[in-house]
Write a structure and sequence with these properties.
Helix content: over 70%
Keywords: Cell membrane, Membrane, Transmembrane, Transmembrane helix, Transport
Shape: globular
Region (Disordered): 1-29
Transmembrane segments: 42-59, 101-121, 128-153, 159-181, 211-233, 253-277
Biased composition (Polar residues): 1-11
CATH class of the domain at 93-279: Mainly Alpha
Oligomer: single chain
Subcellular location: Cell membrane
Distance between the termini: 66 Å
CATH superfamily of the domain at 93-279: MetI-like
CATH architecture of the domain at 93-279: Orthogonal Bundle
């Protein structure tokens, strides 16, 4: 039987072609720079506001709707210039910010403490958690007048309403995180003789934090919404009071200006939670 060998020249050309292809294709794809990623994300996030602003301007310039319903962007800017930049709303902004901060902090502490207790003591969860769910089902706009009647027109009613909205996502996330432990990891901790404290510190706490931090975004916005809701019902100072007052006078531009201020406040609160997540130790908060 005769075997015919492939010509040497053909083999050489094939190897050279493969070598050229390897040189043309880099082994590692270039990693985008942080500045490039930031610019890309910023551009993507500006698309929606740009489209909304353009549609808003076109709608008002063509008189498609009444200015009482949708004021022109220029009128809203004039309201921001007069009331916000002019310092008229300073006391109202500080009152809403103070109420939001206290509501978030109190809701965070109560949520983590309460969630931890109910995660480790099943009888407490059985006795208390159904009533927490029942209270959450109450429309806050309906119970806010009661707190105003009981506690007056100060900060207390809006802090209570804001705390109730910030509290629930934190307590639910804390319970879920502390109880969601991989059985293999738990058995490993037991096999190496880890104490309950070490198990909590190195296993349950990092797992719980991976649940709690996403809930903080909801909690901080909930605190803001709760405070504004209570202020709309009745308070001495606050952006919710400004919305009620300006709407009663038919000043739609000022109402839209307040909504823009609240949107910016929500973005700032989300940024603060993101920064807090990044600066926390990796051993406590998984990145």
């Amino acid at each position: 039987m005769t075997v015919t060998a492939e010509p040497t020249s053909t083999l050489d050309e094939t190897e050279k072609s493969r070598g050229r292809n390897r040189k043309d294709q880099p082994d590692v794809l270039p990693t985008p720079s942080r500045a490039g990623i930031f610019a890309k994300n910023l551009g993507l996030r500006l698309i929606v506001p740009a489209v909304v602003l353009l549609a808003w301007w076109y709608t008002t310039s063509q008189d498609m709707v009444s200015p009482l319903i949708v004021p022109a962007p220029g009128d809203v800017w004039n309201a921001l210039d007069s009331y916000l930049l002019g310092g008229v709303w300073n006391e109202d902004i500080m009152s809403s910010a103070r109420g939001t901060l206290w509501s978030f902090v109190i809701g965070l502490v109560l949520g983590i403490v309460g969630g931890s207790i109910m995660a480790f003591i099943a009888s407490v969860k059985t006795a208390v958690y159904p009533y927490i769910l029942a209270f959450q089902a109450f429309p806050k706009i309906a119970v806010a007048p009661l707190f105003v009647v009981w506690l007056g027109y100060g900060d207390a009613p809006k802090i209570i309403i804001g705390t109730s909205l910030a509290f629930f996502p934190v307590i639910s996330a804390t319970m879920a995180g502390l109880l969601d432990v991989d059985p293999d990891e738990h058995n490993l901790m037991r096999s190496i003789g880890a104490s309950k404290r070490q198990e909590l510190r190195h296993l349950r706490l990092p797992r719980a934090m991976s649940y709690v931090f996403p809930a903080l975004d909801i909690a901080v916005v909930g605190a803001l919404l709760g405070v504004i809701t209570a202020e709309i019902v009745g308070t001495e100072y606050g952006l919710g009071r400004v919305i009620t007052e300006r709407a009663a006078y038919g000043d739609s531009a000022a109402v839209y200006a307040v909504l823009i201020v609240l949107a910016v406040a929500g973005a700032i609160l989300h940024l603060a939670v993101s920064i807090l997540h990044k600066v926390m130790p990796r051993s406590i908060v998984p990145k």
